[in-house]
């Protein structure tokens, strides 16, 4: 087996194409990357849908994950059953701490180049700016934007605490990785080999979830020691604002009633 880390074979969308055409056998892209090919794969990124990890895994190990895996299979790819954890995203700012949806009005915040992220922050009344991650630190430093959002380990590794003063534990989006394979190559494996590979990858995925949980706990303490303050916030106010803005209704239409029904069966009524 040959492993190519750190984007040696190109960007994520390039490698998604490579695994589809068979140049790569396996790939672990974010759900938001797969969503460029399979739009419903972004359903786990519905803003403020999941209140905690219990709901995340009930959905992604259950009806939502099964629905997305079927959609991925329709695109000539095979997704393994266990989704890997990329963490909840949190909001940081160099200005006043984010306390509720009212804090978002006019806030210049960097977001990924992702339609659902732009839609969510626009619905909250913010002024989202889509920037590549490589541009985030400089954009914050030069005040092109005043805020950003990422999982805590990313905030730590990118040293964003140097240009941000507070972090609101919003848990506004959960993101994860699908472990995918080229569909033809997977189908060509003997059944016993498929079983062995599936078991090994799924077990590794469960272990990775525990590793991320432990990492997040230590990262918050480290960020606090570096001067980043943390606060809880009124997440229900964010849900209410998105509901008023028609965000949930819009994405229910885009993902379709069946996929949305699976999501709401776990998290409760959103739209």
UniProtKB/TrEMBL annotation:
InterPro entries: DctP_fam, TRAP_DctP, TRAP_DctP_sf. The chain crosses the membrane at residues 26-50. It is found in: Cell envelope. GO terms for cellular component: outer membrane-bounded periplasmic space. Keywords: Membrane, Receptor, Signal, Transmembrane, Transmembrane helix, Transport. GO terms for biological process: transmembrane transport. Its main location: other. Signal peptide: none annotated. Belongs to the bacterial solute-binding protein 7 family. NCBIfam families: dctP, TRAP_S1. This is Tripartite ATP-independent transporter DctP family solute receptor.
């Amino acid at each position: 087996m040959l492993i190519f880390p750190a984007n040696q074979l190109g960007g994520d969308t390039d490698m998604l194409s490579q695994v589809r055409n068979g140049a790569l056998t396996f790939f672990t892209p974010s759900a938001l990357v797969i969503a460029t090919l399979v739009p419903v794969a972004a359903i786990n990124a519905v803003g403020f849908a999941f209140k905690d990890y219990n709901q995340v895994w009930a959905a992604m190990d259950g009806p939502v994950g099964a629905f997305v895996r079927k959609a991925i299979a329709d695109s000539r790819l095979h997704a393994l059953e266990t989704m890997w954890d990329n963490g909840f995203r949190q909001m940081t700012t160099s200005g006043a701490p984010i306390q509720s949806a009212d804090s978002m009005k006019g806030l210049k915040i960097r977001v990924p180049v992702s339609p659902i992220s732009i839609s969510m922050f626009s619905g909250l009344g913010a002024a989202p700016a889509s920037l590549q991650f490589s541009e985030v630190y400089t954009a914050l430093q030069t005040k092109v934007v005043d805020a950003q959002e990422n999982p805590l380990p990313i905030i730590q590794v990118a040293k964003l605490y140097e240009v941000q003063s507070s972090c609101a534990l919003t848990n506004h989006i959960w993101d994860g990785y699908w472990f995918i394979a080229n569909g033809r190559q997977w189908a060509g494996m003997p059944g016993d080999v498929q079983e062995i590979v599936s078991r090994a990858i799924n077990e590794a995925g469960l272990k990775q979830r525990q590793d991320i949980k432990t990492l997040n706990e230590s990262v918050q303490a480290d960020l606090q020691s570096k001067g980043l303050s943390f606060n809880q916030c009124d997440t229900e106010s964010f849900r209410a604002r998105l509901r008023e803005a028609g965000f949930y209704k819009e994405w229910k239409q885009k993902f379709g009633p069946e996929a949305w029904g699976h999501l709401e069966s776990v998290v409760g009524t959103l739209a």
